[in-house]
Amino acid sequence: MSFSFFKPSRPKTPQELVKAIKDSLIALDTKTVAEVKALEKALEEVEKNLVTMKLMLSGDGEAEPNVDQISQLTLEICKEDVIALFIHKLPILGWEARKNLVHCWSIMLRQMVGSSCCCVQYMENHLELLDFLVVCYDNKDIALNCGNMLRECFKIPSLVKYILESPSFLLFFKFVELPNFDVASDAFSTFKDLLTKHASAVSDFLTAHYNEFFEQYEKLLTSANYVTRRQSLKLLSEFLLEPPNSHIMRRYIVEVRHLRIMMTLLKDSSKNIQISAFHIFKVFVANPNKPREIKVILAKNHERLLALLHNLSVGKGAEDDQFEEEKELIIKEIERVSRLPNLES
Amino acid sequence: MAHEEEEPRKVQYPLDSNCYKILDEIGQGVSAIVYKAICPPINSSVVAIKAIDLDQSRADLDNVRREAKTMSLLSHPNILKAHCSFMVDRRLWVVMPFMSAGSLQSIIASSFPDGLSEPCIAIVLKEILSALSYLHDQGHLHRDVKAGNILIDSSGTVKLADFGVSASIYESSSCHGLAASSSSSSLMLTDIAGTPYWMAPEVIHSHTGYSFKADIWSFGITALELAHGRPPLSHLPPSKSLIMKFTKHFRFSDYEKTKNSKNKKYSKAFKDMVGLCLDQDPSKRPSANKLLKHSFFKNCKGSDFLVKNVLQDLPTVEQRFRGTKLQRLASMNKTDDEDEDEEGLFLGDNMKQRRISGWNFN
């Protein structure tokens, strides 16, 4: 029986709080399935501690949090290996506890202690934790919590670099097509962050894994799922047409198989997809150094392509003028290529 | 591990359109249709399905995704939560609990043209404040508080629907959730043009200045809407610029003087509460939490009071929808020259495409 009720309530120090959190998380292990009540109790304890941690990190809405306490707490969490516990226990925590943990995670991760972020360093030394979080997308109950934690991590270039090279990156090609729209949406946001937030990491990755990456990506572009097609196409233009990836783009636009996909998307039943496809297709055509195979395809299909392009319009407004102007250029170029004498095979 | 027992086991609705049987259409917008349906695999429970055509919707897919994620991480008794959502061809199906009495806007339009009584208003608004207080605590804004987004079920439970960036995905035009469009032609125009009547002056004035306090303004306007049957200024054309001119100088006291209702008297507590919400200066408006403690909400009655005084003898949601659909057809020949104005209310697909000249082929 505890007599804490009679004790003057002194708030816990960061060290005491971290110890309490650690003990309560470890206690989850010692309970077996048979002891349902004991496990419930242990989860309650974790939940309570996480609420205290959240208050210490972000204040209670009235009082501002104490900066020294935040630093101490963050340091202690790393020193005591509590981060690994947090991540490994995430799947068994309750709804509120998970939400509070995600909230605390974003604060701790960007917390500078001295000249460095100790939580980031911790993650860099325990990279397998990232793989653990990625795999959690398969568990629909915790997928969105893990997604939030991952996107916080992927603000840091070194962590992006790791996951791009890790086998778990390939899982994203599956997750973005999960039937559950919320989970698929979240996975796509993370996937997009990975490919757009850190240009040089992405550029290195695409250079090293060009073939396997685009083989996977082709499946997204040709997916039967409308959302997958539309957003993967848009994302493609967002990273492929970025200056740091221009060498990737030059490689991409001389390959016939990619041109074929864009031509297919150009006649998709969705207008949004047609327009997005045009913005990549135009690069194939406008390329002054088109290889012969590309010219042959354009010449062979020029009638259908011209018909498609003539019917394509974005609607109204200033963007329309630019679009029409580019369309005219592309049409002229296709006409020119189709008249080239030496393409007949 | 025993974690499965820990969380209250939620019913998992199937992610397959074949598992739902559509009964009736209960709402319609430019790019969304709302159906009443049953789900035979889940004890034939009744659901509302919002089917949004993502190819027609003006919304950027990024916003749609953000909305879906936000929704899933919220849980409050006064916030309408989707059971699940999945793609059916180009449409996003959002499966939600069926709120059998529909939206307060449609209830008022069909059965309470002069507004609800104050005790009823207090019950509804208190529940909505509780939802707003939760949303704001979680760092989210609703952005579109109005009677059309307040839904009610047969037991008198009140829920706030369509929040977040919903202004862009859950289609502001024409229809909101179960809210069949309103019956008077002037209110119909409201719907077509988005929802400027409810917008705080700072929101109309600058698109960046949206804070929690803008929701409080809309809440105040909603209070008047419930009391009066329509939002203030709704006799004016819904052009944003015009509304802006008026909201800038809008005072609750002026509204009282000019309103043409049948000498309806508001209590002092109600006037005071609405007055606080409609302060021109956002920083002077109370928070949702603080408003909950206002005297207007003291001795507030329970949901059974709503059942007795509002829900009795209401036409069904289906009947109301059919009624408004007929009216809409009758007024089809109206031109909607407000179309241009509407564009600005949506978050468009603003990704600028790189011009050809911008590339480097070398």
Which blocks of ≥5 consecutive residues of chain B have pLDDT under 50? 1-9, 164-194, 334-360
Widest sheet of chain A: strand order? 1-2
Number of strands of chain B: 8
The proportion of residues forming helix of chain B, as a percent range, comes to: 25-40%
Overall 3D shape of chain B: globular
Euclidean distance between termini CA atoms of chain A: 92 Å
Can you count the beta strands of chain A? Answer: 2
**Uncertain parts of chain A:** none
Give the percentage of residues in beta strands of chain B.
Answer: 5-15%
How are the strands ordered across the major sheet of chain B? 1-2-3-5-4
Number of helices of chain A: 20
Total helices of chain B: the number is: 15
Strand content of chain A: under 5%
Q: What's the helical proportion of residues of chain A?
A: over 70%
The pLDDT mean of chain A sits at 91
Largest β sheet strand count, sense and barrel closure of chain A? 2 strands, antiparallel
Structural class of chain A: mainly alpha
Structure overview:
- The complex is a heterodimer of chains A (345) and B (362).
- The termini of chain A are far apart.
- With 345 residues, chain A is mainly alpha-helical.
- Chain A has helices spanning 14-30, 36-58, 67-79, 82-89, 95-109, 118-125, 128-135, 143-153, 157-165, 171-175, 181-196, 199-208, 210-221, 226-240, 246-252, 256-266, 271-286, 292-300, 302-311, 318-338; strands at residues 112-113, 116-117.
- In chain A, helix 2 packs parallel to helix 5 (95-109) and helix 16 (256-266) runs antiparallel to helix 17.
- Among the domains of chain A are: 8-117, no CATH class; 253-345.
- In chain A, a hairpin with a 2-residue loop joins strand 1 (112-113) and strand 2.
- Helices cover 38% and strands 12% of the residues of chain B.
- Chain B has helices at 3-6, 61-72, 104-111, 118-137, 166-169, 185-192, 201-205, 212-228, 240-249, 252-258, 268-277, 288-291, 303-311, 317-330, 339-343; strands at 21-28, 32-39, 45-53, 84-88, 91-97, 102-103, 150-152, 158-160.
- In chain B, strand 1 and strand 2 (32-39) form a beta hairpin.
- In chain B, helix 8 runs antiparallel to helix 11 (268-277).
- Chain B starts with a helix and ends in a 19-residue tail after the last helix.
- The interface between A and B is large, with 52 and 37 residues.
- Chain B: This is Protein kinase domain-containing protein.
- Chain B: Belongs to the protein kinase superfamily. STE Ser/Thr protein kinase family. STE20 subfamily.
- Chain B: ATP binds at residue 50.
- Chain B: Keywords: ATP-binding, Coiled coil, Nucleotide-binding.
